[in-house]
Amino acid sequence: MNWLDTIVQGVLLGGLYALFAAGLSLVFGIMRLVNLAHGDLIVLAAFLVLLLVTTLGLSPFVAAVIAMPVMFALGWVLQFGLLNRTLGNDILPPLLVTFGLSIVIQNALLEGFSADSRRISAGGLETASLQLGPISVGTMPLLTFLSAVAVIVGLNLLFYRTALGRAFRATSDDRETAGLMGIQPNRVFATATGLAMVVVTIAALYLGMRANFDPTMGPARLIYAFEAVIIGGLGSFWGTLAGGVIIGVAQTVGASINPEWQILAGHIAFLLVLLIWPRGLFPRAVD
Amino acid sequence: MALLETRKLTAFYRDFQALFGVDIRLEEGETLAIIGANGAGKTTLLRSLSGLITNQPGHILLDGRPIGAMPAPDVVAQGIAMVPEGRKLFPSLTVEENLQIGAYGRSGSGTWTLGTVYDLFPVLKERRNSPGTALSGGQQQMVAIGRALMSNPRVLLCDEISLGLAPVVIKDIYAAFPRIREAGASIIIVEQDIGQALKVADRVYCMMEGRITLSGMPGAISRDDIHAAYFGAHAR
Q1: B121 near B176, Cβ under 8 Å?
Q2: Structural domain harbouring A257
Q3: CATH of the domain at A171
Q4: Which pLDDT band, with edges at 50, 70 and 90, does B233 fall under?
């Protein structure tokens, strides 16, 4: 086994998991909402990109740029019209509603696109690679990882350097007092979920180009996203990236020992991290 | 026409009635003090004025227009800002960010900017990058007042700003009020510290059990009147 190669591939795979997780981390960090439909929304976005690619003959990247505002609007309406009503002191309503939403999305996609597994064609980019010293790196995994870093940097800048980011943090701290500042918490939450759906679209783009997807695979993506968020510490974007990388490396190392151990190794790494740091690596949230 | 007035204002917490037909008037440029014992309804009155409790529309009038049913973010946009009891700084935000967030619902331009707030409370400029909650109680109160001023309000509501602070610190904070008045804000102060309230106010309302029991100029009402209005006529 080439250790360096294995670890590099794992880090790059971690970029994909971080992309899955970043939107979840954003929404949880601001409104303590655990969105069980997050994985299904990624799959939904992947089908939207696929639809644009096949009907309009666009490049997947252009299709994703077109899908972003559509997904933003969907997220905004979803939060404003539905999820805001579930927020409160009780954590059960948002879990039940997003669990139901997950089933609705899966079945709607099954109706619309059938159970066939699909793939977004990137025109040869999937198999391209770069030679970096002793190791060969796939162009697509590298692009995925760089996109993940860009998303994390972007979210951090937004969160800590802009007026909207201040409103996010203030509303997260104290909704009532945020209202006294002229902030409309329901609109701030809707904007946050809209942004999360933009990140979801980026995740969907790479998911769809990298591997086959079908309407029922959302929950399996959700668990990696959850693990990445929790390993990183709730509310920390860099933590989410680190969490994704840890799961990615654990999976490739596990797979290089025995291909059957790939998924198991990721989950074991998650449990080990939680045993040692129960609140994750970089917890920001107080509660 | 008064700048802000309440007409027969009633307020409820579920089945519990906290205000029973409160009438107050705030004229342009005036400073009002509202005093009373714990549970008299002072904070409920301020929460109603700021939109944290919504009421019948016509119970609260700003420039004669009904605003009683407006939620807090809309009330801020109308030019009413509140310094809430307990300061309520945002722990995730620095001192400067706490001030900046106060301008989020800014209704118009005016005197108050980061620069003029730092002139008013110079110590905040030194601590601008600290988390708001790392400051002393008095400094936190300055942030809370500055944060409310950042919206350039026409009416500033101050709820128990001396609560839990040392007398010397309270004096420092009240020393800022003449400049806040000069800048054009009309002020309503809710205080349990009667001496302090009488010193800064043009007029005083005393509340008991959800009703106004006494009103007048600080110089024109005696301590006995206040005592009676505070505790009830037979409590001496």
Answers
A1: yes
A2: 3-114+138-276
A3: 1.10.3470
A4: low
CA atoms within 13 A on the CB side of A113: 23
Residue type, A189: F
Q: Are strands B31-36 and B203-208 parallel, antiparallel or unpaired?
A: parallel
Q: How far apart are CA A213 and CA A262, in angstroms?
A: 19
Q: Tell me, what's the ipTM?
A: 0.90
Using one digit for the tens of pLDDT, what is the confidence trace for B8-54? 999 998 888 999 999 999 999 999 999 988 888 999 999 999 999 99
Q: Which amino acid makes up residue A90? A: D
Q: Which amino acid is at A173?
A: D
Q: In this structure, is residue B108 part of a structural domain?
A: yes
Q: What is the pTM of this model?
A: 0.91
Give the closest-approach CA distance of A168 to chain B in angstroms: 10
CA A147 centroid distance within chain: 12
| Binary contact (A182, B82; C-beta < 8 A) | no
**Does any domain span residue A241?**
yes
Q: Find the CB nearest A181 among B52, B71, B105.
A: B105
Task: Summarize pLDDT for A149-206 with one digit per residue, the tens.
Answer: 999 999 999 999 999 999 999 999 999 999 999 999 999 999 999 999 999 999 999 9
Q: Does A120 reside within a domain?
A: no
Q: Does A126 have pLDDT greater than 90?
A: no
* Chain A touched by B77 (CB under 8 Å): yes
- Considering the domain boundaries, does residue A129 fall inside one? no
B52 and chain A in contact, CB less than 8 A: yes
Of B50, B91, B93, nearest to A180 by CB-CB distance is: B50
User: Which residue segment(s) compose the domain that B168 sits in?
Assistant: 4-230
- Total domains in chain B come to 1
* Chain B closest-CA separation from residue A220 CA (Å): 33
Chain A residues with CB under 8 Å of B100 CB are 163, 166
Domain total in chain A: 1
Q: Which of A52-66, A79-93, A99-113, B103-117 has the lowest mean pLDDT?
A: B103-117
